[in-house]
Amino acid sequence: MPSFILRKAESKDVSDILRLIKELAKFEEMEEQVILTEKELLEDGFGDHPFYHCYVAEVPKDQQSSEGYTVIGFAMYYFTYDPWIGKLLYLEDFYVMEEYRGLGIGSRILKVLSETAVKTRCSSMHFIVAENNTQSIEFYKRRGASDLSFEEGWRLFAFDKGDLLKMTAK
């Protein structure tokens, strides 16, 4: 089993974070939707007022991936507020490279995120999972996650930038 460290992402990790975001998007068959750049990731996550926080999982050089990478997983999150229950940790993206799955890395990431949520007095951690990603759905359910779309009937909506611009012009 490879040894790994889980650490807060640093600005030097931006290219690896974007690579992992693209790998996740490819896994979800949505790769063409990733338009984010390294520059935006750097500015948005490592400035004076970061919009997101991130952990990365890293293996030693002698256990690097078949492609030569040592950063082999990440979790991107931010804090938000629910007027019914208060502070939330929102897990935006969570990914471990396929060749490193089943080794406890994802469980460790989830544990650290849970500790972060508890330390910051969050009442919950929310996230979405693609319906066809049954492996992840089961991973979360085994750890006690509730499927709110099923249990409470919530639907996820979005306005894209074009829609936002149209509404501002009215």
Total count of strands: 5
Quick check: average pLDDT?
92
The gross shape turns out to be globular
- Read across the widest sheet, the strand sequence of neighbours is 1-2-3-4-5
**What is Rg?**
17 Å
Beta fraction of the residues? 15-25%
Measured distance between first and last alpha carbons: 58 Å
State the helicity in percent bands: 25-40%
Q: Please identify the oligomeric state.
A: single chain
Low-confidence segments, ≥5 residues, pLDDT <50? none
What composes the largest sheet? 5 strands, mixed
Structural class: alpha+beta
Please work out how many helical segments DSSP would assign: 6
Properties at a glance:
five-stranded mixed β-sheet, 170 residues, 5 strands, alpha+beta
Short structural description:
With 170 residues, this protein is of the alpha+beta class.
Describe the structure.
- There is one protein chain.
- Helices cover 35% and strands 21% of the residues.
- By secondary structure, the chain is an alpha+beta fold.
- The chain has a five-stranded mixed β-sheet, with helices on both faces.
- The longest helix has 15 residues.
- It is globular, with a radius of gyration of 17 Å.
